[in-house]
Amino acid sequence: MQCRSENELQILVDEAKHFTSKGKVADYIPALKRANRNSLSIAIYNPDGNYFSAGDISESFTLQSISKVLTLALALMDRGEEYVFERVGQEPTGDPFNSIAKLETSIPSRPLNPMINAGALAVTHMIKGNSVEERFSRLLTLVQKLTANSSIGYNKEVAESEFETADLNRSLCYFLKQHGLIKEDVEELMDLYTKQCSIELNCLDLARIGCVFSFDGKDPISKEQLIPTHIARICKTFMVTCGMYNASGEFAIKVGIPAKSGVSGGIMGAVPGRFGIGVFGPALDDKGNSVAGMKLMRLLSEKYSLSMF
Ligand code: DON
Fold first, then answer.
1. How many other β-carbons are positioned within 10 Å of the β-carbon of residue 44?
2. Can you give the residue ranges of every domain in the chain?
3. CA 184 – CA 196 distance, rounded (Å)
4. pTM (2 decimals)?
5. CA–CA separation, 147 vs 142, rounded Å?
6. Of 92, 145, 163, 296, which one has the greatest count of Cβ atoms within 10 A?
């Protein structure tokens, strides 16, 4: 069954919206505190370029951890699989996204996967370029191509706000540097990482990126292969195993769609061979996932039989 009208989507949004009251807006990055806790919106982007949406999809938000999928794709394109996975593992963790614990207990020290902060920082370090500006601009160009939206930029206020308060991430960087996984200046890496997290877009842009992943890295409209097939597949696999952090197992059972969340409240979904999904609902659960967003994805998956399992 296929979604045929915005009314159908609106009914699901209305049902999931009650769950916004169960969550809290992220406040550890001061600039994120201002988000409207009651917001909930969704866009579904089809490979023929048509889309359906419900809620206020003009609301923009920052990618936060959703950017980890895109930096992974870029690092894999820049360095190849062997190089990347010698330095970052491929296994899920049951720990929170910003945990340092496993870095201490795994020998040799290596982040468990590219979706937790430690792994994502190591991956961002791998992006090629002669300066932070050049590396960031290469990432932004990829995002602009994936969204077919050249106006996408980053939110300077959110980037600065995170840069000023990211001491836990700095400590992860220093740990990684001590173990030879990061060689550059930590402040430079933090500059790049906080900018990648602050790339700003809306649900429709996010759904379009999801759609490209649904079609294994090929833009279904322009037919251009934006990300090599095997790399898009690796990214999608990580979305299944680690995309919703330590809620990924439950999400796979209840929803069954490769997805990645961020603390701004965004969720990107890629229904293999069918369409992309962009959701925004800033009220988060204690694991950092959008509460109403996850409920909405579940309702959607049940209604249209979207689970890949
Ligand atoms: O590293 C951080 O703290 C954020 N910029 C991104 C974290 C995030 O989105 C975790 N997601 N649920």
1. 28
2. 6-63+202-304, 65-197
3. 17
4. 0.97
5. 9
6. 296
In DSSP terms, which residues pair with 21 in a beta bridge? none
Q: Which residues line ligand 1 (CB under 6 A)?
A: 64-65, 97-98, 117, 162, 169, 197, 261-263, 288
Residue type, 156: K
Ligand 1 centre to CA of 11 (Å) is: 30
Q: Distance of CA 146 to CAs 17, 61, 163, 192, 207, Å?
A: 29, 17, 26, 20, 10
Nearest atom in ligand 1 to 288's CA: 12
Rounded to the nearest angstrom, the distance between the alpha carbon of 263 and the centre of ligand 1 is 5
Give the residue numbers marked as catalytic: 65, 68, 193, 245, 263
**How far apart are the CA of 152 and the centre of ligand 1, in A?**
20
| Four-residue CA torsion sign, 114, 199, 224, 304 | positive
What secondary structure letter does DSSP report for 80? -
Q: Which of 16-25, 104-113, 154-163, 181-190 has the lowest mean pLDDT?
A: 104-113
- Architecture of the domain whose range is 6-63+202-304: 3-Layer(aba) Sandwich (3.40)
Do 89 and 112 contact (CB within 8 A), yes or no? yes
Task: Kindly report, residue by residue over 71-115, the tens digit of the pLDDT.
Answer: 999 999 999 999 999 999 999 988 888 888 787 777 777 899 999
Cβ-contact 225, 217 below 8 angstroms:
yes
Other residues' Cβ atoms within 10 Å of the Cβ of residue 261: 32
Q: Is 222 exposed, middle or buried (0-12, 13-18, 19+ CB in 10 A)?
A: exposed
Q: At the top level of CATH, which class does the domain 65-197 belong to?
A: mainly alpha
Ligand 1 atom, smallest distance to 289 CA = 12
